[in-house]
Amino acid sequence: MPLHHTEPYRIPFDVPELAFDEAVRLAADTGTIPGDAGPLLETVVDMLDELGRPDQAFDVLQVAGTNGKSSTVRFTEAILRGEGCRTALYTSPHLVRYPERMEICGRVVADDVFAHGVSAAAEAGRRVNARRVKEGRQRYTITPFDLLTVAALVAFAEAGVEVAVLEVGLGGRWDATSATNPVGVAVTGIGLDHMRILGNTLAEIAAEKAAVIKPGRFAVLGEGTHEPEVQQVMDERCAACGVTPVVVRHEVISLPRFMGDDLAVRCLAPRATYTVRLPKPAYQAQNVACAVDMAEEYLGRPLDEALLNASLAACPTPGRFDVLARDPLLMIDACHNPQSCDAFVGSVGEIAPERSARPALLIAALTDKDAAGIVQSLVPAFPRIAVTQTDSPRALPACDLATLVRAELDREGRPATDLVAVYPCVPEALGALERAGEAVVAAGTITLAGEVAAFVAK
């Protein structure tokens, strides 16, 4: 049930305001504020304490999982906003610009709001570390995600939102969003993701993500938590916390056959059954159903089906089956592990059953992902393959990815010429493919989707 927060939030100290460009520099992957301890969850807790706990000025819903998090938080926020709540959304990563990670009432925050939030977070971190040094303790390392999370919570509190839906950045147990105290959480599904950090098995990764389930919170478990070794971890965590989870149930009524067709889903929520139609690919069905359960649990009542349909139909999902141009086709999808790639390929197959009729694939990957699994999922689905490398410091070199692609083509018995080119960067790849008049689908990592979107926006 929604809580009622009556006290307006104010930052308890003066904030030296950063210019927008300086705020973006701090928020970038290379903007870590160095220290001797961490990164730690306690860093974010202490920064929020220093700021007078802006996160306690509103309700928090938290969404963890390997796949579907971004879409689920977007759908949940849209449903609650449609039901009359004053909402906020925190998601990551962005596609083009950092402010995209924070939305208030369905709108990306203004540049000055973003810069102010980062300024407040940076000053809180400075004050916390100065006090720690004075007390003879080590300074915290403050990561860009720490700063962005605290900045978003400040912006949301100052805007007077009622409920914020937060996407977990990595894992769950130690994620910066876990410094808050959500009233409800969801785990969308589990896959082999960020294996260097979270673990090498589904059970190990599930345990990190299941840690967001705690006593006193409602919990929603998505369709992707039903693998036996994952479900065992979830069941044990819920039992230990005294939580009876809502298990997402839905039925797909009809699938889209062409771009712009509606997906029809029957959501079997605890309080009511809803039929929703929205112009999304089939893999969004489980994310929609998870969001419906989240919203219904939070409100503690059935949803208005007409408002639900209107909210979902209007909800954007940037980078998810996202058509940027039509002549020739340029589509991006932020699938970034084998499970999400399989879902994407399934949706492509519903629209173009024959591989020969599909566009070329532009693929990139990151070193901390299952690149071989991504290649094995995506490459067989497309007639021609182009390989590139994003500008992320975690980018898998194009030559290494090309080796994986060649091995997959050889395994399939396909000609080596199906790998049409290897490009050192995304702009060069897009320029060449555009000059060739090639229809293109770009997939394999979120950073590729973002760089393609930025290229088109220029």
What is the strand tally?
Answer: 17
Radius of gyration: 22 Å
β-sheet strand percentage: 15-25%
Task: State the distance separating the first and last CA atoms.
Answer: 44 Å
The overall pLDDT, averaged over residues, is: 92
**Could you give a short account of the major beta sheet?**
8 strands, mixed
Unreliable stretches: 194-199
> Considering DSSP H and I runs of 4 or more, what fraction of the residues is helical?
25-40%
Main β-sheet, spatial strand arrangement: 4-3-2-5-1-6-7-8
Task: Give the helix/strand layout.
Elements: H1 20-27, H2 41-50, E1 59-64, H3 69-82, E2 87-90, E3 102-104, E4 107-108, H4 111-134, H5 144-158, E5 163-167, E6 184-189, H6 195-198, H7 202-210, E7 218-224, H8 228-241, E8 246-247, E9 250-254, E10 263-268, E11 273-278, H9 285-299, H10 305-314, E12 322-326, E13 329-332, H11 338-351, E14 360-363, H12 371-378, E15 385-387, H13 398-412, E16 419-422, H14 426-435, E17 440-443, H15 446-457
Parallel strand pairs: 1-5, 1-6, 2-5, 6-7, 7-8, 13-17, 14-15, 14-17, 15-16
Antiparallel strand pairs: 2-3, 3-4, 9-10, 10-11, 12-13
Helix pairs in contact: 1-4, 2-4, 2-5, 3-9, 3-10, 4-5, 7-8, 11-12, 12-13
Describe the fold and architecture.
By secondary structure, this protein is α/β, with parallel strands linked by helices. It has helices at 20-27, 41-50, 69-82, 111-134, 144-158, 195-198, 202-210, 228-241, 285-299, 305-314, 338-351, 371-378, 398-412, 426-435, 446-457, and strands at 59-64, 87-90, 102-104, 107-108, 163-167, 184-189, 218-224, 246-247, 250-254, 263-268, 273-278, 322-326, 329-332, 360-363, 385-387, 419-422, 440-443. The longest helix has 24 residues, at 111-134. The chain is globular. The N and C termini lie far apart (44 Å).
